[in-house]
Amino acid sequence: MILMVIELSDFLSRVESVQYTIFTQKFHSSVHKTLKKNNGILKKTDNNNYWVSFNSVNDAIQCALEVRHKFKYVTPKHKSFSRRLQMALTVSNKAETSSFTTAARLCEMTKDQVVIVEAVRDLYESKNLHAEIDKTLIRVLNPKEEEFLIKLSAYLSNHWANPDVTVRTLGNAFGLSYSQLHTVLIKLVGKTPNKVIKDYKLHKALELLYLRDGSISKIADKIGFSSPSYFSHCFLKKYGVRPSKYLQQHAV
Length: 252
Description:
The chain is of the alpha/beta class. Helices cover 56% and strands 13% of the residues. Keywords: DNA-binding, Transcription, Transcription regulation.
């Protein structure tokens, strides 16, 4: 069985205008139609994620390509819209939830819009002897790349609140020099080591703000930023809105 995770990867959920609402409606309608067409079995969904299983690898690959193709036609064209579509496909093992979690972590970390593990590619090409995966549309992760991304996601998930997490400690965790770490992160994640750490912390800060889990200064301290003002500067640079403004937009 092939498992696919579809993720609208930008957590930023500002007060939505009509255009954003229309996007959401169009996107979900498009995904549901595409899943039905390609015999996808919906296991779990919310406003930003889909967990789907397929009995046929051909159906899974075709579905991923169709969702990818249709996404650009339902996406608002204005510059302030920043949601990105990410998809990852893996082969199910006995622990299906664990396999879905693996795919979700690949979605979270990779820079490529659609990624599959080698086992999915091999299964697809064994079913289609005269066809190959189009690598301009789908990134095939080798086992070492897959393992690295999963471990990276787990490491950041476990250490994001640690103010002592640095590029050096991250490199040490993987046994890599700075240059080696920089090379592999640019290749797989599309970011420098420092930006990987900072962006992950800001993502967690966004979740904490959204959940009203403490004041801005307490959240800045919790994610390991040296000062609330520096945190506010970084948050504004990444999300286009200051933390204080974001809280106003989501006042309860």
